[in-house]
Amino acid sequence: MGNDRPTADERGAMTAYHTEPPAALAALARQPGADECDICCEAIPGYVCGDLRQFDAAWLEEHTASCGYCRNELTGFRRLDHLLNEYESHRCEAVTAPPFRGRTREVAHYGTMDSPLGVLLIAVTDQGVCEIDFGRNQTLADFQDRMRERGFDLVPDQEAIRPVVEQLSEYFQGTRSTFDVSIDFSGLTPFARDVLQATAAVPFGGLATYSEIARRISNPGASRAVGNALGRNPIPIILPCHRIVPADRSIGNYTGGVDIKVTLLSLEGAVLPAGGRVS
Q1: E strand or H helix that includes residue 40
Q2: DSSP letters for 88-138
Q3: Of 124, 113, 46, whose CA–CA distance to 81 is shortest?
């Protein structure tokens, strides 16, 4: 009977095969006989769920920008994912917040600040900070329209946001790791509030996954709904949704832009190895 045990070289090759990360999508697409559209379509679910590595997501975005077929596939999957998000969110939220038209509107004072991330648009009420937006992603008019849709009547007032600006400035300078400003959660559903409060408990420099947040709010099957709520976080940085990552501990997506997420995690001391993964 022959010796079927693998040699040392063969064992090393098998170990490398099982431990090396999967090849980049761009590398797979360059292989002889590869179909870029097949590779793209197989990766779309992971992209929509935020599970792709940053460079793979960039390749997919570039491909769908020039390929109508794959762009349509991506659009269709996003619509399906949105429906699933809505279903799961409603299933997890036994009580929903009243519509803005059915409750008293609030006055919000707003202003801007310069930051390493560009201009930030900030709004506060008597209850606390209610909105922080990245100015690079929208105009002041867009910000004002969205705040009015949320039920706020806006008043420009740079002095009113000064305490928030001071604490954010200290954070960006590396002299502050926690925030002690009040938060106005008005207009958010109970589920979204639970998600954001659990997210706020993730410490500076720390990380948690969507599933971990779901377990912390006693909804272990609500990872998708957690991601949906964090994608609509009205007070990023202070409510640190940038510290929440996919189950594989990759960077994932970020509403403000993945580069902002990388910047914030780097500022807090998270190590970002090659491939855009955090440890």
Answers
A1: helix 36-48
A2: HHHHH-SS-PPPGGGS--EEEEEEEEEETTEEEEEEE-SS-EEEEEEGGGS
A3: 46
The tens digit of pLDDT for each residue in 51-65 reads 678 788 889 888 988
pTM, two decimal places: 0.64
The CA radius of gyration of the chain, in Å to the nearest whole number, is: 22
Q: Quick one: CA torsion of 78, 122, 217, 209, rounded to 10 degrees?
A: 60
The token duo for 239 is 């409510």
Domain architecture of the chain: domains with CATH: 8-91 (no CATH), 101-186 (3.30.160.70), 188-279 (1.10.10.10)
Phi, psi of 48, deg, nearest 5: -65, -35
- Kindly name the residue from 40, 92, 130, 241 that is annotated as catalytic: 241
SS3 of residue 155 by DSSP: strand
Residue type, 98: P
Query: Within 13 Å of residue 218, how many CA atoms lie on the same side as its CB?
Result: 2
Indicate the helix (H) or strand (E) that contains 244. Answer: strand 244-245
- Rounded to an integer, what distance in angstroms lies between the CA atom of residue 222 and that of residue 219? 5
CA 189-261-130 angle, to 5 degrees, is 35
CA dist list (Å): 267 to 22, 160, 208, 246:
28, 27, 17, 20
Answer yes or no: 241 catalytic: yes
Residues of the chain with pLDDT under 70: 1-22, 49-51, 81-104, 271-279
